Amino acid sequence: MSLTKEQIVLAAVEVLDAEGVAGLNMRRLGGQLDSAATAMYYHVKGKDRLVELAADHVFGEIELPGPAATGWREAAAGLARGAHRMIVRHFWLIPAMSTHVIYGPNKARYDDHCLAVHESAGFAGADADRVAASILMFVIGAAQGEAAESALRAKVRRAGADEEKRMDEAMAEMVETARRFPRLRARLEPDYPDGGDAFEFGLSSLLDGLFARLT
């Protein structure tokens, strides 16, 4: 049975989720699909284009809540949470966005819906653009930590090293460094109060600030 472009993109997402951008190549993808690497080129010009298609594909995973049913704030928060979960699932998206032009029908669909949500609150034109960009930048920044850990795990796996041992070593190095600074050291103590969900705190603060600009 001949391959389809959709099959290739889905397989690429699987490889990227496991090994990151550095682990994706046409030979590796051919092995994933039990097909010759040359068969990939019939549908996709090369690795860079495949990364772009895979990135646009995962943007299609984000649910698009409507403001008519939930109101602007909850719709905007839902879009941000959906994007955050998606980026954490697909850690390779952050580095891919720094080296590739990520745009296609799914990304455009997400962007257009974001603008519609913000316009429903009263943001118009360039203001709606700035609100959408600000929220997405916050989401990407908030996902960076978890994405970085997943990227390190993928790198260790590609090297054939003991994944858990390397992660334990990395954590130990972080703790040792933090203990040199008094405020960070205090936060390592077992009785230090839980700071709660930093993402939700930041998102709520951001939305509060944005909404205040309308009043």
Your description of this structure?
- By secondary structure, the chain is mainly alpha-helical.
- It has helices spanning 5-19, 26-33, 37-40, 47-59, 67-70, 72-89, 93-99, 105-121, 126-159, 163-178, 182-187, 198-212.
How is the topology of this model organized?
Elements: H1 5-19, H2 26-33, H3 37-40, H4 47-59, H5 67-70, H6 72-89, H7 93-99, H8 105-121, H9 126-159, H10 163-178, H11 182-187, H12 198-212
Helix pairs in contact: 1-2, 1-4, 4-8, 6-8, 6-9, 6-12, 8-9, 9-10, 9-12
Spans where pLDDT lies below 50 across 5 or more residues: none
How many helices in DSSP terms? 12
CA-based shape? flat
Rg is 20 Å
**Major sheet:** none
What's the helical proportion of residues?
Answer: over 70%
> How many strand units?
0
The portion of residues forming beta strands comes to under 5%
Distance between the termini: 60 Å
Order of helices and strands: HHHHHHHHHHHH
Structural class: mainly alpha
Mean pLDDT: 91
